Prior knowledge:
The chain is of the alpha+beta class.
Amino acid sequence: xVRSLWSAATGMNAQQTNVDTIANNLSNVNSVGYKAQVAQFxxxxxxxxxxxxxxxxxxxxxxxxxxxLGVRTSSINSLFSQGSLLDSDSDTAFAIxxxxxxxxxxxxxxxxxxxxxxxxxxxxxxGGMTLTNADGLPxxxxxxxxxxxxxxxxxxxxxxxxDGQVCYPDEQNNPQPIGITIGxxxxxxxxxxxxxxxxxxxxxxxxxxxxxxxxxxxxxKSRIVQGYLEGSNVQVANEMVNLIVAQRAYExxxxxxxxxxxxxETANNLKR
Length: 272
């Protein structure tokens, strides 16, 4: 009887985590570059009530008797499906079509990766410009260096090609590459990336090393679209359905606890 109480309690805890994950997805439905998450569950250890044995007549019983001890959250996975492209008035808004990630240099010196291409040109101490995200983290080029330009460039005249090349108009006002390419990187297993923010990810052993699209053979290069941002890949209708399912599962586990309590109360009243 007590076993049923604990099993139902683990179910309620697991579904609470599920609801929290869904709520976080819904709250980030308008976050640029956000990737939806989904909670995964696994069964806890089974308790053996009776091992394989024989009947009173000597006939073998083909199976043992085992009862489950509940459920727990095994992982919360990120879904890296393509988000819709949103029009932006900013010249430094970039969306990625494909499997690539932008690279950013963190304050700790480590490299982080993101699909959020809402960048700005930040002025440096010497009057030059550095391409950064909204938090001031510099964007890296295909060689792993921060994208910086000297004071002779005008930010409004800079354009980016679909393959990431930074261009500036010549005397005839025709955009020409200046020898800098925005870096895009892929991973063998993006699901193994460690989420360090809503849109920032760090490399782990599970994700594998970052694959530079410019130098790695056999990698399908992503397409960079200037003037657009990649929206969240959260599907509101699906999340609302998942939320209803999680709520019903929570209620069923709560009902199991109530039923177990009623059975224990009935057993206690038998002596009266």
